[in-house]
Amino acid sequence: MEINNFILPTHTKISTCNLQVPLNYKNLMVEEIKKLSIRNYTSTNVHATRYPGYHIWEDTKVFDKLFNNIQKIAFKVTNLNPKTQKIKIVEAWSIIYENNDYTKLHNHILTPYSFVYYVKSDTNASPLRFPECNFEIKPEEDLLIIFPGYLFHEVLENQGIRYVIAGNMIVNQFSFKKD
Hints:
The protein is built from two helices and twelve strands; from the N terminus they run E-E-H-E-E-H-E-E-E-E-E-E-E-E.
């Protein structure tokens, strides 16, 4: 598995990685996203079909393997200290972008890391944009993107269709008691 890191002019690191998820698991995730999502759920920045909450694992266990894998990769790319720190997904949701769907410019300032995983995506889908950094990433099936939560990001009006799992992660500090 190859991990790519992009150090932007702002010294911000965004990491991408193809997870090599088997096709049958991706298809299962797409079906679960369709089942759990609501069209025109508009109380967020997302103007698309999405899961109507932030803890998708409360309604399904289908994504558990994916979340474990994302946490392992996030731990690698964030250079955390394995003796005193671990990374944990604290929010996750699904999104189905169809033609003309979009996400307004926003950030996740309260969480150190955010992620986007493209379960399935048409080749002409709109990129994930980071305007402050003048950087964008074109979606491709099976691509994971990990970035600092403070980075403003958006998706302009989409063309085609894509299925996404997105979320936020925190770093837990812990210590070992010495006897």
